[in-house]
Specification:
This is cysteine-S-conjugate beta-lyase. GO terms for molecular function: cysteine-S-conjugate beta-lyase activity. The chain folds into two domains: 194 residues, Aspartate Aminotransferase, domain 2 (3-Layer(aba) Sandwich), CATH 3.40.640; 141 residues, Aspartate Aminotransferase, domain 1 (Alpha-Beta Complex), CATH 3.90.1150. It contains 15 helices and twelve strands. By secondary structure, it is α/β, with parallel strands linked by helices. The mean pLDDT is 93. Helix 3 packs parallel to helix 10 and helix 13 packs across helix 15. The strands form two sheets. Strands 1-7-6-5-4-2-3 form a seven-stranded mixed β-sheet, sandwiched between helices. A five-stranded mixed β-sheet has the order 8-9-12-11-10. It is globular. The protein binds pyridoxal-5'-phosphate. Pyridoxal-5'-phosphate (PLP) binds next to helix 4.
Protein backbone atom coordinates (compact mmCIF):
# COMPACT_ATOMS: atom_id res chain seq x y z
CA UNK A 1 0.00 0.00 0.00
CA UNK A 2 2.68 2.50 1.04
CA UNK A 3 4.78 1.55 -2.00
CA UNK A 4 1.86 2.32 -4.26
CA UNK A 5 1.30 5.69 -2.59
CA UNK A 6 4.94 6.68 -2.94
CA UNK A 7 5.10 5.83 -6.59
CA UNK A 8 1.92 7.82 -7.17
CA UNK A 9 3.45 10.87 -5.52
CA UNK A 10 6.61 10.48 -7.58
CA UNK A 11 4.60 10.39 -10.73
CA UNK A 12 2.87 13.63 -9.77
CA UNK A 13 6.25 15.34 -9.39
CA UNK A 14 7.42 13.95 -12.71
CA UNK A 15 4.25 15.04 -14.47
CA UNK A 16 4.43 18.53 -13.04
CA UNK A 17 8.05 19.01 -14.13
CA UNK A 18 6.95 18.27 -17.69
CA UNK A 19 4.84 21.40 -17.43
CA UNK A 20 7.83 23.40 -16.25
CA UNK A 21 8.80 26.41 -18.29
CA UNK A 22 11.02 29.41 -17.60
CA UNK A 23 8.33 31.60 -19.13
CA UNK A 24 6.04 30.72 -16.24
CA UNK A 25 8.53 31.60 -13.51
CA UNK A 26 10.49 34.54 -14.88
CA UNK A 27 13.76 33.20 -13.45
CA UNK A 28 16.78 35.43 -14.13
CA UNK A 29 19.29 32.59 -13.92
CA UNK A 30 19.41 29.60 -16.24
CA UNK A 31 17.96 26.71 -14.22
CA UNK A 32 20.22 23.77 -13.36
CA UNK A 33 18.62 20.95 -15.33
CA UNK A 34 19.57 17.86 -13.34
CA UNK A 35 18.04 15.37 -15.71
CA UNK A 36 19.93 12.57 -17.39
CA UNK A 37 17.06 11.79 -19.76
CA UNK A 38 14.15 13.69 -21.33
CA UNK A 39 10.57 12.64 -21.91
CA UNK A 40 9.48 12.58 -25.55
CA UNK A 41 5.96 13.89 -26.06
CA UNK A 42 5.51 12.18 -29.38
CA UNK A 43 6.05 8.52 -30.21
CA UNK A 44 8.07 9.21 -33.34
CA UNK A 45 9.04 12.87 -33.32
CA UNK A 46 11.64 13.60 -30.66
CA UNK A 47 12.35 16.88 -28.89
CA UNK A 48 15.64 18.82 -28.80
CA UNK A 49 17.05 16.82 -25.86
CA UNK A 50 17.22 13.08 -25.34
CA UNK A 51 20.15 12.31 -22.99
CA UNK A 52 22.35 14.75 -21.07
CA UNK A 53 25.69 13.49 -22.42
CA UNK A 54 24.49 14.47 -25.91
CA UNK A 55 22.81 17.69 -24.79
CA UNK A 56 21.60 19.40 -21.62
CA UNK A 57 19.72 22.73 -21.46
CA UNK A 58 22.03 24.26 -18.80
CA UNK A 59 25.16 23.21 -20.68
CA UNK A 60 23.55 24.42 -23.89
CA UNK A 61 23.09 27.91 -22.43
CA UNK A 62 26.80 27.95 -21.52
CA UNK A 63 27.88 26.61 -24.92
CA UNK A 64 25.83 29.25 -26.75
CA UNK A 65 27.31 31.94 -24.49
CA UNK A 66 30.97 31.05 -25.17
CA UNK A 67 30.28 30.65 -28.92
CA UNK A 68 28.83 34.15 -29.00
CA UNK A 69 31.63 35.67 -26.92
CA UNK A 70 34.34 34.15 -29.16
CA UNK A 71 32.48 35.06 -32.36
CA UNK A 72 32.01 31.38 -33.26
CA UNK A 73 29.07 29.25 -34.34
CA UNK A 74 29.56 26.32 -31.96
CA UNK A 75 30.68 26.15 -28.35
CA UNK A 76 31.28 22.93 -26.42
CA UNK A 77 31.72 22.51 -22.68
CA UNK A 78 33.98 19.81 -21.21
CA UNK A 79 34.79 18.42 -17.77
CA UNK A 80 38.18 20.20 -17.76
CA UNK A 81 40.44 22.30 -19.95
CA UNK A 82 42.46 19.18 -20.68
CA UNK A 83 39.28 17.27 -21.64
CA UNK A 84 38.52 20.00 -24.19
CA UNK A 85 42.11 19.97 -25.49
CA UNK A 86 42.50 16.18 -25.70
CA UNK A 87 39.06 15.76 -27.32
CA UNK A 88 39.97 18.38 -29.95
CA UNK A 89 43.23 16.52 -30.73
CA UNK A 90 41.03 13.58 -31.71
CA UNK A 91 40.20 15.49 -34.91
CA UNK A 92 43.57 14.06 -36.01
CA UNK A 93 44.32 10.53 -37.27
CA UNK A 94 47.21 8.09 -37.24
CA UNK A 95 50.05 9.32 -39.46
CA UNK A 96 49.36 13.02 -38.78
CA UNK A 97 51.97 15.41 -37.41
CA UNK A 98 51.56 18.42 -35.07
CA UNK A 99 53.73 21.52 -34.84
CA UNK A 100 53.32 22.80 -31.29
CA UNK A 101 54.68 25.60 -29.13
CA UNK A 102 57.45 24.48 -26.77
CA UNK A 103 55.95 26.73 -24.08
CA UNK A 104 52.78 24.65 -23.95
CA UNK A 105 50.74 23.95 -20.78
CA UNK A 106 52.13 20.91 -18.87
CA UNK A 107 48.98 18.77 -19.24
CA UNK A 108 48.91 19.41 -23.00
CA UNK A 109 52.62 18.50 -23.13
CA UNK A 110 51.85 15.22 -21.34
CA UNK A 111 49.02 14.32 -23.75
CA UNK A 112 51.02 15.16 -26.87
CA UNK A 113 54.19 13.35 -25.73
CA UNK A 114 52.75 10.35 -23.84
CA UNK A 115 49.36 9.56 -25.40
CA UNK A 116 49.29 10.72 -29.03
CA UNK A 117 52.48 8.88 -30.11
CA UNK A 118 50.81 5.57 -29.15
CA UNK A 119 48.04 6.46 -31.62
CA UNK A 120 50.57 7.19 -34.37
CA UNK A 121 50.36 10.99 -34.09
CA UNK A 122 53.74 12.72 -34.08
CA UNK A 123 54.80 16.19 -32.96
CA UNK A 124 57.58 18.76 -33.14
CA UNK A 125 58.08 21.40 -30.44
CA UNK A 126 59.14 24.83 -31.69
CA UNK A 127 59.83 28.30 -30.28
CA UNK A 128 56.61 30.02 -31.44
CA UNK A 129 58.01 33.52 -30.99
CA UNK A 130 60.01 32.67 -34.15
CA UNK A 131 57.77 32.28 -37.25
CA UNK A 132 60.61 30.99 -39.42
CA UNK A 133 61.28 28.18 -36.97
CA UNK A 134 57.57 27.26 -37.11
CA UNK A 135 57.61 27.32 -40.94
CA UNK A 136 60.62 25.03 -41.14
CA UNK A 137 59.06 22.48 -38.76
CA UNK A 138 56.06 21.92 -41.07
CA UNK A 139 56.16 18.57 -42.90
CA UNK A 140 54.01 17.09 -45.67
CA UNK A 141 51.92 15.25 -43.03
CA UNK A 142 51.55 18.24 -40.66
CA UNK A 143 47.82 18.65 -40.00
CA UNK A 144 47.78 20.95 -37.00
CA UNK A 145 49.60 23.98 -35.60
CA UNK A 146 49.00 24.45 -31.87
CA UNK A 147 49.42 27.90 -30.25
CA UNK A 148 49.33 29.24 -26.71
CA UNK A 149 49.66 33.02 -26.42
CA UNK A 150 50.59 34.54 -24.02
CA UNK A 151 52.40 31.40 -22.92
CA UNK A 152 53.18 30.09 -19.49
CA UNK A 153 55.08 31.14 -17.37
CA UNK A 154 57.22 33.71 -19.25
CA UNK A 155 54.33 35.22 -21.25
CA UNK A 156 55.86 34.55 -24.68
CA UNK A 157 53.83 36.07 -27.52
CA UNK A 158 53.01 34.31 -30.81
CA UNK A 159 51.99 36.26 -33.93
CA UNK A 160 48.54 34.69 -34.45
CA UNK A 161 47.92 36.09 -37.95
CA UNK A 162 51.41 34.97 -39.03
CA UNK A 163 50.72 31.39 -37.91
CA UNK A 164 47.28 31.38 -39.57
CA UNK A 165 48.90 32.36 -42.87
CA UNK A 166 51.44 29.53 -42.57
CA UNK A 167 48.65 27.08 -41.73
CA UNK A 168 46.51 28.15 -44.72
CA UNK A 169 49.50 27.78 -47.07
CA UNK A 170 50.08 24.26 -45.76
CA UNK A 171 46.48 23.08 -45.32
CA UNK A 172 46.75 22.73 -41.55
CA UNK A 173 44.22 23.29 -38.81
CA UNK A 174 45.08 25.79 -36.07
CA UNK A 175 44.20 25.44 -32.37
CA UNK A 176 44.77 28.24 -29.87
CA UNK A 177 44.65 27.95 -26.09
CA UNK A 178 43.07 31.29 -25.10
CA UNK A 179 43.03 30.68 -21.33
CA UNK A 180 45.27 33.64 -20.41
CA UNK A 181 43.25 36.21 -22.39
CA UNK A 182 39.63 34.95 -22.64
CA UNK A 183 37.40 36.41 -25.40
CA UNK A 184 37.24 39.64 -23.40
CA UNK A 185 40.77 40.49 -24.57
CA UNK A 186 41.58 38.22 -27.54
CA UNK A 187 39.30 36.73 -30.20
CA UNK A 188 41.40 34.23 -32.18
CA UNK A 189 38.52 33.10 -34.46
CA UNK A 190 38.42 36.64 -35.89
CA UNK A 191 42.08 36.16 -36.88
CA UNK A 192 41.36 32.87 -38.67
CA UNK A 193 42.09 30.31 -35.93
CA UNK A 194 40.02 27.12 -36.37
CA UNK A 195 39.51 25.95 -32.77
CA UNK A 196 39.77 28.10 -29.64
CA UNK A 197 40.35 26.17 -26.41
CA UNK A 198 39.98 27.24 -22.79
CA UNK A 199 40.68 26.08 -19.33
CA UNK A 200 37.52 27.75 -18.01
CA UNK A 201 38.82 26.78 -14.56
CA UNK A 202 40.79 30.04 -14.68
CA UNK A 203 39.55 33.55 -15.55
CA UNK A 204 36.24 32.50 -17.13
CA UNK A 205 34.91 30.92 -13.94
CA UNK A 206 37.04 33.27 -11.84
CA UNK A 207 36.37 31.91 -8.36
CA UNK A 208 38.74 28.93 -8.04
CA UNK A 209 35.70 26.73 -7.50
CA UNK A 210 35.25 24.47 -10.55
CA UNK A 211 37.29 22.58 -13.16
CA UNK A 212 35.93 23.17 -16.66
CA UNK A 213 36.96 23.40 -20.32
CA UNK A 214 35.54 24.96 -23.47
CA UNK A 215 36.12 24.65 -27.21
CA UNK A 216 34.75 26.99 -29.88
CA UNK A 217 34.74 26.87 -33.68
CA UNK A 218 33.51 29.24 -36.35
CA UNK A 219 33.24 26.67 -39.15
CA UNK A 220 29.96 24.78 -38.74
CA UNK A 221 31.26 21.55 -40.25
CA UNK A 222 34.23 21.53 -37.87
CA UNK A 223 31.82 22.32 -35.02
CA UNK A 224 29.79 19.23 -35.90
CA UNK A 225 32.89 17.02 -35.96
CA UNK A 226 33.92 18.37 -32.56
CA UNK A 227 30.43 17.87 -31.11
CA UNK A 228 30.57 14.27 -32.35
CA UNK A 229 33.87 13.81 -30.51
CA UNK A 230 32.47 15.44 -27.36
CA UNK A 231 29.63 12.92 -27.39
CA UNK A 232 31.95 10.03 -28.28
CA UNK A 233 34.44 10.68 -25.47
CA UNK A 234 31.74 11.85 -23.11
CA UNK A 235 33.95 14.21 -21.10
CA UNK A 236 31.10 16.72 -20.78
CA UNK A 237 30.64 19.43 -18.17
CA UNK A 238 27.84 18.63 -15.70
CA UNK A 239 24.79 20.85 -15.31
CA UNK A 240 25.76 22.26 -11.89
CA UNK A 241 29.26 23.24 -13.02
CA UNK A 242 27.78 24.66 -16.24
CA UNK A 243 25.60 26.88 -14.07
CA UNK A 244 28.59 28.01 -11.95
CA UNK A 245 30.54 28.83 -15.08
CA UNK A 246 27.69 30.90 -16.53
CA UNK A 247 27.58 32.86 -13.26
CA UNK A 248 31.36 33.36 -13.43
CA UNK A 249 31.26 34.57 -17.04
CA UNK A 250 28.64 37.19 -16.11
CA UNK A 251 31.23 39.03 -13.97
CA UNK A 252 34.27 38.36 -16.22
CA UNK A 253 34.65 41.93 -17.47
CA UNK A 254 34.51 43.62 -14.05
CA UNK A 255 36.85 41.09 -12.46
CA UNK A 256 39.33 40.86 -15.29
CA UNK A 257 39.54 44.60 -16.02
CA UNK A 258 40.32 45.31 -12.38
CA UNK A 259 42.88 42.47 -12.19
CA UNK A 260 44.60 43.51 -15.45
CA UNK A 261 44.78 47.12 -14.29
CA UNK A 262 46.38 46.02 -11.02
CA UNK A 263 48.76 43.65 -12.89
CA UNK A 264 50.13 46.57 -14.90
CA UNK A 265 50.74 48.56 -11.70
CA UNK A 266 52.42 45.62 -10.00
CA UNK A 267 54.58 44.93 -13.08
CA UNK A 268 55.70 48.59 -13.05
CA UNK A 269 56.43 48.39 -9.33
CA UNK A 270 58.48 45.19 -9.69
CA UNK A 271 60.43 46.58 -12.66
CA UNK A 272 61.70 49.38 -10.41
CA UNK A 273 62.66 47.14 -7.48
CA UNK A 274 66.39 46.44 -7.09
CA UNK A 275 65.93 42.85 -5.86
CA UNK A 276 63.89 41.82 -8.93
CA UNK A 277 66.10 40.62 -11.79
CA UNK A 278 63.47 40.41 -14.50
CA UNK A 279 59.73 40.98 -14.99
CA UNK A 280 57.75 39.20 -17.72
CA UNK A 281 54.50 40.98 -18.61
CA UNK A 282 53.28 41.81 -22.14
CA UNK A 283 52.15 45.24 -20.88
CA UNK A 284 55.78 46.35 -20.40
CA UNK A 285 57.28 48.05 -23.47
CA UNK A 286 60.51 46.12 -22.76
CA UNK A 287 58.71 42.78 -23.27
CA UNK A 288 59.83 41.24 -26.61
CA UNK A 289 56.21 40.50 -27.60
CA UNK A 290 54.83 43.90 -26.55
CA UNK A 291 53.98 45.18 -30.05
CA UNK A 292 52.58 41.96 -31.51
CA UNK A 293 50.45 41.40 -28.43
CA UNK A 294 49.05 44.95 -28.62
CA UNK A 295 48.01 44.29 -32.24
CA UNK A 296 46.12 41.08 -31.53
CA UNK A 297 44.78 41.59 -27.99
CA UNK A 298 43.21 44.47 -26.10
CA UNK A 299 44.94 44.01 -22.74
CA UNK A 300 48.13 42.41 -21.38
CA UNK A 301 45.98 40.44 -18.94
CA UNK A 302 46.43 39.67 -15.25
CA UNK A 303 49.33 37.19 -15.11
CA UNK A 304 52.96 38.21 -14.74
CA UNK A 305 56.18 36.45 -13.79
CA UNK A 306 59.30 37.83 -12.15
CA UNK A 307 62.70 36.55 -11.17
CA UNK A 308 64.33 36.80 -7.77
CA UNK A 309 68.05 35.95 -7.54
CA UNK A 310 67.83 32.55 -5.82
CA UNK A 311 65.47 29.92 -4.50
CA UNK A 312 66.27 30.91 -0.89
CA UNK A 313 65.33 34.52 -1.59
CA UNK A 314 62.13 33.44 -3.37
CA UNK A 315 61.31 31.26 -0.35
CA UNK A 316 61.82 34.15 2.11
CA UNK A 317 59.62 36.36 -0.09
CA UNK A 318 56.79 33.81 -0.42
CA UNK A 319 56.82 32.99 3.31
CA UNK A 320 56.56 36.68 4.21
CA UNK A 321 53.58 37.51 1.99
CA UNK A 322 50.24 37.95 3.73
CA UNK A 323 47.66 38.33 0.95
CA UNK A 324 48.16 35.96 -2.01
CA UNK A 325 47.37 32.29 -1.99
CA UNK A 326 50.50 30.18 -2.70
CA UNK A 327 49.16 27.55 -5.08
CA UNK A 328 48.98 26.21 -8.63
CA UNK A 329 46.29 27.63 -10.93
CA UNK A 330 45.44 31.22 -11.81
CA UNK A 331 42.55 33.46 -12.78
CA UNK A 332 40.74 33.62 -9.43
CA UNK A 333 39.37 36.66 -7.59
CA UNK A 334 42.09 35.92 -5.01
CA UNK A 335 45.67 36.62 -6.09
CA UNK A 336 47.56 33.37 -6.66
CA UNK A 337 51.33 33.13 -6.46
CA UNK A 338 53.07 30.05 -7.80
CA UNK A 339 56.59 28.69 -8.09
CA UNK A 340 56.79 27.13 -11.59
CA UNK A 341 60.07 25.24 -10.91
CA UNK A 342 58.36 23.20 -8.16
CA UNK A 343 54.76 23.34 -9.44
CA UNK A 344 53.68 23.59 -13.11
CA UNK A 345 57.12 22.75 -14.55
CA UNK A 346 58.41 20.33 -11.89
CA UNK A 347 58.46 17.44 -14.38
CA UNK A 348 60.68 19.32 -16.84
CA UNK A 349 64.44 18.48 -16.82
CA UNK A 350 66.40 21.27 -15.12
CA UNK A 351 68.43 22.31 -18.19
CA UNK A 352 65.22 22.56 -20.30
CA UNK A 353 63.63 24.61 -17.55
CA UNK A 354 66.51 27.03 -17.20
CA UNK A 355 66.80 27.38 -20.99
CA UNK A 356 63.22 28.69 -20.91
CA UNK A 357 63.94 31.14 -18.08
CA UNK A 358 62.18 28.99 -15.47
CA UNK A 359 64.89 29.30 -12.83
CA UNK A 360 64.48 28.47 -9.13
CA UNK A 361 63.94 32.16 -8.37
CA UNK A 362 61.08 32.61 -10.89
CA UNK A 363 57.62 33.29 -9.48
CA UNK A 364 54.33 33.61 -11.36
CA UNK A 365 51.66 35.94 -10.06
CA UNK A 366 47.99 35.85 -11.08
CA UNK A 367 46.49 39.11 -9.88
CA UNK A 368 43.12 38.97 -8.13
CA UNK A 369 40.67 41.74 -7.31
CA UNK A 370 42.11 42.84 -3.96
CA UNK A 371 42.99 46.50 -3.47
CA UNK A 372 46.14 47.05 -5.55
CA UNK A 373 47.75 49.30 -2.93
CA UNK A 374 47.37 46.52 -0.36
CA UNK A 375 48.99 44.06 -2.77
CA UNK A 376 51.92 46.38 -3.51
CA UNK A 377 52.41 47.13 0.21
CA UNK A 378 52.44 43.39 0.89
CA UNK A 379 55.01 42.82 -1.87
CA UNK A 380 57.07 45.69 -0.50
CA UNK A 381 57.34 44.31 3.02
CA UNK A 382 58.00 40.76 1.75
CA UNK A 383 60.73 42.00 -0.61
CA UNK A 384 62.36 43.78 2.35
CA UNK A 385 62.47 40.49 4.25
CA UNK A 386 63.83 38.76 1.13
CA UNK A 387 66.52 41.46 0.76
CA UNK A 388 67.66 40.76 4.34
CA UNK A 389 67.94 37.08 3.40
CA UNK A 390 70.18 38.12 0.53
CA UNK A 391 72.43 40.14 2.88
CA UNK A 392 72.58 37.28 5.35
CA UNK A 393 73.73 34.80 2.70
CA UNK A 394 76.04 37.45 1.30
CA UNK A 395 75.29 37.12 -2.40
C1 LIG B 1 45.03 25.20 -16.48
C2 LIG B 1 45.34 25.24 -17.93
C3 LIG B 1 44.97 24.19 -18.79
C4 LIG B 1 44.31 22.91 -18.28
O1 LIG B 1 43.02 23.13 -17.84
P1 LIG B 1 42.29 22.24 -16.70
O2 LIG B 1 41.00 22.95 -16.55
O3 LIG B 1 43.18 22.29 -15.51
O4 LIG B 1 42.17 20.87 -17.26
C5 LIG B 1 45.23 24.32 -20.14
N1 LIG B 1 45.86 25.41 -20.62
C6 LIG B 1 46.25 26.42 -19.83
C7 LIG B 1 46.93 27.60 -20.43
C8 LIG B 1 46.01 26.39 -18.47
O5 LIG B 1 46.42 27.40 -17.69
Amino acid sequence: MSVYKESLETSIVVASTREYSERKTGVVNVPIYLSSTFHQESFDEFGPYDYSRSGNPTRDALEKTIAELEGGTRGLAFASGIAAISSAFMLLSAGDHIVITEDVYGGTFRFVTEVLPRLGIEHTFVDFTNLEAVASAIRSNTKLIYIETPSNPCLGITDIAGIVELAKDNNCLTFLDNTFMTPLYQRPLDLGIDVVLHSATKFLSGHSDIIAGLAVTKDEELGKRLAFLQNSFGAILGAQDSFSLIQGIKTLSVRFEKSADSAQQIANYLTNHSLVEEVYYPGLSTHPGFEIHAQQATSPGAVLSFRLPTKAIAKAFVESLQIPVFAVSLGGVESILSHPAQMSHAAMPIDEREKRGITDGLLRFSVGIENVNDLIADFDQALQVAAKQKEKVGI
